[in-house]
Design a protein that fits this description.
107 residues, Zinc-ribbon 15 domain-containing protein, five-stranded antiparallel β-sheet, Zinc_ribbon_15, mainly beta, two-stranded antiparallel ribbon
């Protein structure tokens, strides 16, 4: 008997608690403090959702979820607040760009 399972478990943002609360540990762009939920999907259809245990940080640039204890200080107000960093070449990229102008990777 052959059994094929197409699905998995993923995390999704449920509610933003505080916007711009910190910086991402991977790409150093601003990230938000969020409440999240875990979603079980079977054949790409959500079948079960349950809330996460505590609030976590979520980066809108690289879509990373990580605990608050690992976060970096929030971005400076006097620096370019809208400038992000490319997660591959670590150069500053303006927020309106969809691709890094230096290495061409997707933002």
């Amino acid at each position: 008997m052959f059994f094929f399972f197409a699905g998995g478990l993923e995390q999704q943002v449920r509610q933003v608690v505080k916007s711009g609360a910190s910086r991402c540990i991977a790409c150093r762009s601003p990230c938000d403090l969020v409440d999240y939920e875990k979603v079980l999907k079977i054949f790409f259809i959500p079948v079960w959702r349950w809330p996460g245990k505590e609030s976590v940080m979520h980066c809108n640039n690289c879509k990373l979820f990580f605990p608050q204890t690992y976060s970096l200080p929030p971005p400076d107000a006097d620096s370019t607040a809208e400038a992000l960093r490319c997660r591959f070449c670590d150069r500053r990229v303006e927020s309106e760009f969809s691709f890094c102008p230096y290495c061409g990777s997707a933002m």
